[in-house]
Design a protein that fits this description.
With 243 residues, the chain is an alpha+beta fold. The chain has two domains: 113 residues, Killer Toxin P4, Chain A; 90 residues, Killer Toxin P4, Chain A. It contains four helices and twelve strands, in the order βββαββαβββαββαββ. It has a seven-stranded mixed beta sheet. A five-stranded antiparallel beta sheet has the order 3-6-7-5-4. Strand 4 and strand 5 form a beta hairpin. Helix 1 runs antiparallel to helix 2 and helix 3 packs antiparallel against helix 4. The longest helix has 20 residues.
């Protein structure tokens, strides 16, 4: 089955089968700043320092922000690991993301990359605490469910409950499951925000992501909306491990 790609209002739809993306390959990336820096420049040196800071700061708790440099050479960045990911795997993912961004967005002053296990973002602009509505994409399982009329409301029910739960926790992260009543079949879900957001902004971000699920994934067996500040996901198989 073929997949089509389309970009509308910075929203990218990508077709995917089950575990098509693994932990070592990026899900997607954006080089979102049109401005560039030069090789061996102060900005580049500060970016390297930022990546090193995040590599140390993020793994113990799964999240961290940092800023390095001053004035036009200042770099701001954050990294977030999925809530169930171990410190070791978190560090590996952040380090991989740092290397990939250097290759994917060479000399760009703003970029973001996502993996299954983490996201990494940096910019010359100060963005902490603000909802990122620009850098966003969706992944979907191209296989259809048998009865979308009853399945779609279940997806909304589960993700809406996880939006509330995640925004009320310190980690801004929640997972859950919902019985579908069909041969003990279960629907699994996940919701997570970057921890620079307030609880209110986290819920706003998640609720917008949930509202976009029908646009990409209506009647599909799995899907996710992934952004620079939050993400939601549902599947008919367990999403996370036991951490």
């Amino acid at each position: 089955m073929s997949c089509s790609k389309s970009i509308s209002l910075a929203f990218l739809f990508i077709c995917a089968f089950f575990h098509a993306a693994n932990a070592t390959n990026p899900l997607y990336h954006f080089c979102f700043n049109k401005q560039n820096y030069t090789a061996n420049s102060p900005f580049g040196a500060n970016l390297n320092t930022l990546f090193n800071h995040l590599s140390v700061k993020v793994p113990p708790s799964g999240f961290g922000i940092a800023s390095t440099g001053q004035y036009q050479n200042k770099v701001n960045g954050l990294a977030l690991c999925r809530g169930d990911v171990s410190s070791k795997d978190c560090k590996t993912c952040v380090n991989d993301a740092s290397k990939q961004l250097r290759n994917l967005c060479p000399y760009n002053k703003g970029a973001i990359v996502w993996y299954d296990n983490c996201l990494l973002k940096y910019s010359d602009a100060y963005f902490f605490g603000e909802i990122d509505n620009q850098n966003k994409f969706a992944l979907l399982n191209v296989q259809d469910v048998d009865n979308p009329e009853t399945f779609n409301p279940k997806v909304k029910e589960l993700l809406s409950s996880l939006s509330y739960k995640a925004s009320a926790t310190a980690k801004l992260y929640a997972t859950g499951e919902l019985e579908l009543g069909k041969e003990s079949e279960k629907l699994y879900g996940l919701a997570q925000c970057t921890r620079d957001l307030s609880s209110d902004n986290c819920k706003k971000c998640l609720d917008v992501a949930i509202s976009e699920i029908p646009n990409c994934c209506s009647g599909k067996r799995g899907g996710r909306v992934v952004g620079g500040s939050c993400n939601v996901r549902y599947e008919l198989y367990p999403i996370v491990g036991t951490a």
